[in-house]
Amino acid sequence: MLRYLATRLLLVVPTLWAVATLVFVLVRVIPGDIVELRLVSGGTYVTREVIEQERARLGLNKPLWEQYVDWVGGLARLDLGTSMWTGAPVVREIAIRLELSLQLAVMATVVAVSLAIPLGVWAAVRRGTWVDHAVQVFSVAGLATPSFWLGILLLLFLLWTFRWLPPMLFTPLWVDPVANLSQLVWPALAVGYRYSAVATRMTRSAMLEVLREDYIRTAWSKGLAERPVVVRHALRNALLPVVTVIGLEFAFLIGGLVVTEQVFNLNGVGKLFVDAISRRDYTLIQGLMLLVASVYVFVNVGLDVAYALLDPRIRYR
Amino acid sequence: MPASAASRLVRRHPLAAASAAFLVLLALAAVLAPWVAPYDPMDNDYAAMFAPPGSRHWLGTDSYGRDILSRLIFGARTALLVGFSASVVGATAGALVGVASAYFGGVVDLVVQRVADILVSFPLIVLAMAMVAVLGSGTANLVAAIALSFTPRAQLVVRSSALQVRHMVYVEAARALGAGHWRIILRHMLPNVLAPYLVMLTAFLGQAILLEASLSFLGLGVAEPTPAWGLMLSGAAVEFVQRAPWMAISPGLAITLTALAFNVLGDALRDALDPKLRV
Q1: pTM for the predicted model, two decimal places
Q2: Which of A112, A219, B108, B228 has the fewest Cβ atoms surrounding its Cβ within 10 A?
Q3: A44-48, A304-308, B46-50: which has the highest mean pLDDT?
Q4: pLDDT exceeding 70 applies to what percent of chain A?
Q5: Could you tell me if B18 lies within 8 Å of chain A, comparing CB atoms?
Q6: Residue B1 reports pLDDT greater than 60
Q7: Is B220 close to A278, i.e. CB distance below 8 A?
Q8: Domains of chain B with bracketed CATH
């Protein structure tokens, strides 16, 4: 197991190198000229010289291969370069916002799991009844509701019922848990609902498959109560695909964060990404894309470990 | 469709039938927008800013005094236009690349697949946002950005079907008759991966609606004063949510219902065409 894990982690390096190369190609090679795009979109007249100076400052006058070597060489030292807009190191720009977004992601996962597993199991056990239909409508609607709109509705609900809005300033969890949670619970609900939709569907279909198995019939016929049959015999064996979906959706959470952080005015990684895009801050975009891909890669390694823990039949060498 | 078939559809798949009806109505409203909409969607009426829903403005007005219902109807044009073109372009480009990659095999296939594998590790909206940064803003670029973020997903699904088709007798026969690569790809392989292609295409429609709305909401998609649902939810709708909640409710409802209808239809089509296929 440990040896397998070490190999997997070593393989992360070439994977991320490939990702970094692709991101570089995507962001740097396709557009004609980043500086012109940025300066001209400002609307003012700019002379050729100013453009050349700006290009030299950002290192864009070097040949592409040299820029590429700079970018990958920096990565080897965990240096993502400096932001083209603020001039601060990209790593720092991300680091100061990571805490908020990471906490939000974890909270959204908690919301999603605590909705998806009970609802999915319930729907599967009561297959074809109104419960099943209601759960399915709930999850189909979750996939169609934009999380930023759900966020606006939550704000509206808080205003109408409590005449209260969540605090605007971020307080770290250990400084004041109440202030922290009263700010982040709402965006977590908005993101978590959509997240739960996919997991609910997966829980339901995995449970339906397992409930047809012979050992479930055996469990019923030896007179076990519903709870142990459903929870211990069925759910435990249906968990693998559910855990997979939860993990992969976690890696995709940044997609929900970019819009939700905007609604709740949270200064997190999602908002940073939106700002980076609208300012055409190419180094920052590259760094954030690499962060998103790394989360995905590491979640996949984590999932493989989780499989071995959940299913004793799975052994890695 | 004959009347009996329609009634059977309604009885067997009531949700799919309702979705289809909703989308037909929406498409009609979008096409006939200048005649259906009660007001000009760009018309500012400063005397009637933040007017609540009533007999003059059924869904109220926004912070510029523009009629929300009219903006919703014209916004349907934007949503459907962007949604359809992005889905069709994205799925078609993906299908072409996927089939070609399966046909040629070898190093081409390997490289193309690895690139797609990396691209699908990004959420759709992240890819689409990066594309907007590269391509610039504007409606045509928005369509391209959404389409490009769909392409690797379509490519992976279509390629796996195309791999089975590649060794079919009719493909061998075409090759034996001396057909060129592209003739085989376009005339013999592409038509036989139509089922996964259609399933992908319909699955994309709902996502494209959401992506367009999200990007416009973030200020990276359709620009003011063009009416777009996502745009109607940004800025003033959040700022004045207490004073004018109607500004925030109806556009969100329009996005949700449209995406929902496309998803329900997509699921129904998937079940009908290929129950094994998961998108």
Answers
A1: 0.90
A2: B108
A3: A304-308
A4: 94
A5: no
A6: no
A7: yes
A8: 76-277 (1.10.3720.10)
